[in-house]
Amino acid sequence: MAKPDPALLEPARYPFCCTIEPRFGDLDTNMHINNVSLTGILEDARVRFHAQSGYHAAMGESVSMVASFNVEYLGQSYYPHPLVIHVGASRLGRTSYVLNQLVRQQDRPVAYSEAVMVCVGKSGPAPLPQAFRSSVSDWMVLS
Questions:
Q1: Does domain 6-139 have CATH number 3.10.129.10?
Q2: What are the sequence ranges of the domains in the chain?
Q3: What pLDDT does residue 1 have?
Q4: Whole-angstrom Cα distance, residue 5 to residue 8?
Q5: Residues of the chain where predicted confidence (pLDDT) is lower than 50
Q6: What values do phi and psi take at 92, rounded to 5?
Q7: N or C: which end of the chain has fewer CB within 10 A?
């Protein structure tokens, strides 16, 4: 993934924000938060976003799964400073949607990610439910 559009590094564009405290076990040998640990923190933030946004009710009997996940590391992150993760949906397809995530620490960007989430029904990929399409507008990244 190429460096993100500078507009996507503006926290005010994101409708959801959460703070996650790194653990000492998240560090690498250079005393930075390990890249693999950071992907787990991004996963946690996606789950928190879905819980807050009413995603589960809007999806009905469908679920979603990550089909693609890209991270652009923009700077080092350190323990014990909290990570602030901003999350918002950016694009809707027929069966999928994209979640953008901006990770900041001490008021500076340290990572940006995009996750393509695919809607899955009982027999495989399924169209995004209308209830989800209607409710997600409040949770989109502002353009």
A1: yes
A2: 6-139
A3: 66
A4: 6
A5: none
A6: -115, 130
A7: C
